[in-house]
Automatic annotation (TrEMBL), chains A, B, C:
Keywords: ATP-binding, Kinase, Magnesium, Metal-binding, Nucleotide-binding, Thiamine biosynthesis, Transferase. Its EC number is 2.7.1.50. It catalyses: 5-(2-hydroxyethyl)-4-methylthiazole + ATP = 4-methyl-5-(2-phosphooxyethyl)-thiazole + ADP + H(+). This is hydroxyethylthiazole kinase.
């Protein structure tokens, strides 16, 4: 939660962290976007997550799912699948998470019989099955609505040595989608680029993952349009 | 919890973080002060919070309440009101939180009929209704017992771009009140000043909110009397 | 969890943080080592901790216990004793924690009648009673199997001003024991030395506890064999 909240603050958003089902009816309508992260999942959190997501959908507001370690247990996979059923605007995960979700979503389909699905194909299948924009983080990030595929090429490998950078960028996607809810694919690709460019700028000053973490957040806070435009590399695939 | 515990350690205090009701009877008597923070509130935590606060009152020791986002939901407001009923030594919040608590505490009184209560008036009303010292964080921090009002003028705006700086200073207030329990207003104003002066010193070295966070804690650790005395700006209002 | 996960990532390990009993059967077999930390203990976590530890023992894999504040409450001490009963490969605590655990483990024995047990004697007694390697952190760290005692002399005092450095080194012990499960005493002493040498290297650049935290993790990430070998001080007692 720490790096997630600090990322959002640095980007100009206003984070609030809510766990309890009892707060969903009052609090959720005040939010412009919701980020559901199943990181250290407890059974009691699942109803709160579902309830908040359902309320956002009912209110016509965006919500974003981070299916952390979706394939690590049946409990976690089932919780993620139930959340995918609530139609997230965007799902962002790493390759393994998206492949796990995609296979489970398509368990009765053709693709699931094959072990060879790569992350991009999994993302496209999951996007078509769920109606969500699906983003896969990696050396190159890809974002797809099931047909169109956009690749975001920024970032540095050392970002993977900082815990919860994936969680942080998922929350940033929620903030970007809140500002442009009718273009979730573009908003998602932009959020991934901005976060990764902050990582590149931070890497110029970093001596290791802990100083990278600091310089990344500082760079995100100080990011100006010129720096962004000179570095951004988003392409259609 | 991370920045809260590191703030306390940097200031020379010994933090311990306890969640479970089962530990209150054994652990609470070992503490010189208690800080209750309703940040990511869960229903099961409320009885533990109340029980710990009640035990501190019974033992004649100070306890401090941080009513995080008190107005964000009925559940949260009710939990905060129940805690205010256990007579905190100090309540510290931002303007919105103190206004929300004050209005709800006075719901049958005159002031609650007016929408125009500002944070200072809310703080004074809440202090009189609760018997607590009330501190409101803002561009200028104010501390009141309902009659006397003290303003602490230190700090830098970027501290608001770091998650949980408010939580950290509330915990620091608890540590200061533990050292001088018979002067909670002065101890509260001192803690706010010391934390904000550490922020000013940190700001001289910071390039953004993440490096400010680091330099603030380092400055708090290294703070000496001369630096404090040359910078402190506390006034009576 | 933040500094623990970042420590493991910096050292080249792959951390995952699991709370729920529902995930133990699926997830635990995927881990090469388990670290159980009772930090902010809740009653509902104890069965998950026990279940995960029992499964690791059944699978013949190492697990490490951090009995945080073991003596602070009866609830916490009983939870720790129940976990000691599941035969941790290593137990790492500070002097107070190891003394509390050792006394409680030996409550019907001779030693428990004496109040004078020091941390080293407590560690040896606990190691003999539990069959675990026991490590005591302090100005000099000691590691014992009940007979042999090894002392690790690296480290800087300011590391104690950073919250959860003890938790971080316990997790690092788990990672080291995973790589050399048949030499848990040596692996434990090595992990303590490596973490403390990273602290020494970080201290050369630090201006306070928050920058030490950053430089420690950076140094751990960048540590090379030459720096290690020139600094390591492990002796037999």
């Amino acid at each position: 939660m720490d790096i997630v909240a600090n990322t959002l603050l640095a980007a100009g958003a206003s984070p609030a962290m809510i766990h309890s089902l009892a707060e969903i009816p009052d609090f959720t309508p005040q939010a412009q976007a919701l980020c559901v992260n199943v990181g250290t999942l407890s059974p009691s959190w699942v109803p709160a997550m579902k309830s908040a997501a359902e309320l956002m959908v009912k209110l016509g507001k965006p919500w974003v799912l981070d299916p952390v370690a979706a394939g690590a247990s049946g409990f976690r996979l089932n919780a993620c699948l139930a959340l995918v059923g609530v139609k997230p605007t965007v799902i962002r995960g790493n390759g393994s998470e998206i492949i796990a979700l995609s296979r489970a979503s398509l368990v009765k389909g053709v693709d699931s019989a094959h072990g060879s699905m790569d992350a991009l194909e999994a993302a496209k299948s999951l996007a078509r099955a769920s109606g969500s924009i699906v983003a896969v983080s990696g050396a190159v990030d890809v974002v797809t609505d099931g047909n169109r595929v956009v690749a975001a090429h920024n970032g540095v490998p050392m970002m993977q040595k900082i815990t919860a950078t994936g969680c942080a960028v998922t929350a940033l996607i929620a903030a970007f989608v809140a500002l442009d809810p009718s273009h979730p694919l573009e908003a998602t690709a932009s959020a991934l680029s901005v976060f990764c460019i902050a990582g590149e700028l931070g890497m110029d000053l970093a001596k290791g993952p802990a100083s990278l973490r600091m310089h990344l957040i500082d760079s995100l806070y100080g990011l100006d349009e010129a720096a962004l435009l000179s570095r951004v590399r988003i392409t259609d695939l």
